UniProtKB/TrEMBL annotation:
It comes from Prymnesium parvum (Toxic golden alga). Residues 51-249 form the Methyltransferase FkbM domain. Residues 13-35 have a biased composition (Polar residues). It comes from the Eukaryota. Residues 1-35 are annotated as: Disordered. SUPFAM superfamilies: S-adenosyl-L-methionine-dependent methyltransferases. This is Methyltransferase FkbM domain-containing protein.
Length: 293
């Protein structure tokens, strides 16, 4: 993925300046069981990273170990808002929570979660769970693995929407299964924004303000999810939203955009709404693009 700053001209300058595992699907609460006595997953978390559409967990690993992914597209965001040091990110004050809907990635992501927590990181992965604008369940479409080569195991086209880029079975339909959905806006409102931590507590070399970073790559579902976040007043409380838009601007996304009914110019309209959200709307929108686009 390639990083493009959108909507906020000052973002580039600010970023470059000196500055069985626990899952929602197997928890009675629906959000996992790593909770404090107050019942909040994120209590004590000064910095929060939400990986929405985690795929095989590359960005989670990047968040915790910048040395291995120094040139990753989110590196300037992580450095600016979380800090440069591995020790700081390992502390109890930095937390990550990821969602992935594709059931083919369950084994890989459970391994990633176990490895991260064994190293002292505070990470939770909810899989298979799709993010949405409502609680419930949905049909999730994915590629026919029998037609995929080994190097395509990421399954970039898997989505809640059946579109023409999916490899079809002999019957003409993409393979699919039912997965649970969570209302992402409500999750952020009730958990992330309600977390408690000591604002004055000295944390190593952490002089950075508390932060919330969200990477979102959910194959066409971003329109409904972000609209819901705006409606609940959640979006403006996030520091950075790094997003891959799946709209008509790129020919490769046209089939998915049509299936998901993404409105034309959705990205520009979202930028406009954020720009006119008032002084309390602090979110910075950063666009992530596929490599080579």
């Amino acid at each position: 993925m390639v990083l493009h700053q959108r909507g906020h001209p000052s973002l580039t300058h600010r970023l470059s300046s000196g500055s069985p595992p626990i899952t929602a699907s197997n928890s009675s609460s629906g959000y996992g069981s790593r909770r404090t006595t107050n019942g909040n997953l994120f209590d004590g978390c000064r910095h929060v990273f939400l990986d929405v559409g985690a795929n095989v967990g590359i960005n989670l690993r990047h968040y915790w170990d910048a040395r291995k992914y120094r040139w990753g597209p989110l590196q300037p965001v992580f450095d600016r808002y979380v800090g440069h040091t591995r020790a700081l990110r390992r502390s109890k004050h930095a937390c990550a929570y990821a969602f992935e809907a594709n059931p083919h990635h369950v084994r890989t992501l459970r391994k990633v979660e176990a490895e991260l927590n064994s190293e002292g990181f505070r990470a939770t992965i909810s899989v298979p769970t799709a993010v949405s604008d409502r609680e419930g369940s949905t049909t999730f479409f994915f590629d026919d693995w029998s037609k995929l080569q080994r190097d395509h195991y990421h399954e970039w086209s898997a989505s809640m929407f059946q579109h023409d880029d999916l490899h079809r079975t002999a019957s003409g339909w993409a393979k699919n299964t039912s997965v649970r959905t969570i209302d992402l806006a409500q999750f952020i409102l009730s958990q992330v924004l309600n977390r408690t931590f000591d604002h004055e507590e000295p944390v190593s070399d952490d002089t950075l303000k508390p932060s919330i970073i969200m990477k979102i790559d959910i194959e066409g579902a971003e329109f409904a999810v972000l609209s819901r976040m705006m409606a609940l007043g959640v979006l403006c409380h996030i520091d950075v939203v790094a997003i891959e838009f799946h709209d008509e601007r790129r020919k490769g996304f046209i089939p998915l955009a049509k299936a998901a009914q993404v409105p034309p110019n959705f990205a520009k309209n979202l930028e406009f709404i954020i720009a006119h959200g008032g002084k309390d709307c602090k979110v910075n929108l950063v666009e992530l693009s596929p490599v080579g686009s």
